[in-house]
UniProtKB/TrEMBL annotation:
Name of the protein this chain belongs to: Site-2 protease family protein
MF GO annotations: peptidase activity
Membrane topology value: Multi-pass membrane protein
Primary localization: membrane
PANTHER family cross-referenced by the UniProt entry: ZINC METALLOPROTEASE EGY1, ZINC METALLOPROTEASE EGY1, CHLOROPLASTIC-RELATED
Subcellular location: Membrane
Keyword Membrane applies: yes
Stored CDD domains: S2P-M50_like_2 (cd06160)
Similarity-based family: Belongs to the peptidase M50B family.
Annotated TM spans: 12-32, 44-65, 85-104, 116-139, 206-225, 246-264, 276-295, 304-322, 328-346, 362-382
InterPro entries with a match to the protein in the record: EGY1-like (IPR044838), Peptidase_M50 (IPR008915)
Amino acid sequence: MSQRTKTYLLHGGLFIITLITTTMAGAEWMFGRLFIPVKGMKRLGWEEFVAGFQFSLPFLAILTVHEFGHYFTAKANRVRVTLPYYIPLWLGIGQSIGTLGAFIRIQDYINSRKKYFDIGIAGPLAGFALALVVLWYGFTHLPPPEFIFTIHPEYQKWGLAYGQFAYENLPEGGAVALGDNLLFSFFKNYVADPARLPHPYEMIHYPYLMAGYLALFFTSLNLIPIGQLDGGHILYALIGRGLYRWVAPSLFILFAFYAGLGLFKPSDFAVPTDEAFFSELGNFGLYIVFLYLAFSRISENRTTSWLITLSVVAAQLVFSWIRPDWEGYSGFLVFVFVLGRFLGIYHPETELQEPLDAKRKLLGWLALVVFVLCFSPKPFLFS
């Protein structure tokens, strides 16, 4: 067996495994149950697995179009790249989407702003276009509102007014809502039939809505204009090396500030016992160390990294003291850490600093508009 055949089998095998894991995860979201037996809960079977394709096929189609947008544009620019590597991940305990995404490996050194721009922008714009189609279909083909009773038969005692009663006594985190972004809000308010629109806590059971929303979520993450994310490639090409070295770390600091805003407030330390105080203080110390690790590559000087870390933490405390109702989204902290420690804040420098033509500039700013349309300040809301 040739090396090329082995490579194709690897890519194809990863795709098939990812198709299976995303189908299982989609079925778990749709039916609110698991494939693994749990006491007191009817486990999912083959029929539910097949239904899960309603989530996995559109979601993986968007992901695949995104990656092949990068792939074919790289080939057109004579840059050697691999086929997409799909990353399957099924937890078996719910609240996973069956994958960590996909990526292609660039096998050549890219020495041109234009090439970085073309390769970086092709993926998110291609995936975004298909996401619009999936969302349009999902919102224009909503089942009757009584559909929710097939998922939650216990709601039938309240009828279609279940939203007033069903969530009163749920444990914390017992229900999940999809946080609005500008585009998702547009579809809900101007495309969907209001009489068929499900309660926000029930949208996770509608596979096309879930697939489309997740596509917008990952598009927005990819288009964050920092480092070697697609948005980083685009902004680097738009504004050039010199300005980007100031803009990228500034945006990263703002992103980290927002993610951790409200996680710790001055009032949190007003506790009745010394034990509780030192426990809170210990958690606060761990948070500072975590943030420092995220900022450790923002400068070669450790003192500078510490100063930035402490300044961000101080600013968060001040804002939380002035406006305790202002809170960021701590779920982004994981991405802040990954971005700061592994993906990088800065962009690889290129020898050729040729300016972009007018068409590319227009597409670049359009991509940043897409980022604004897709970005949700609080992507997932838990009861």
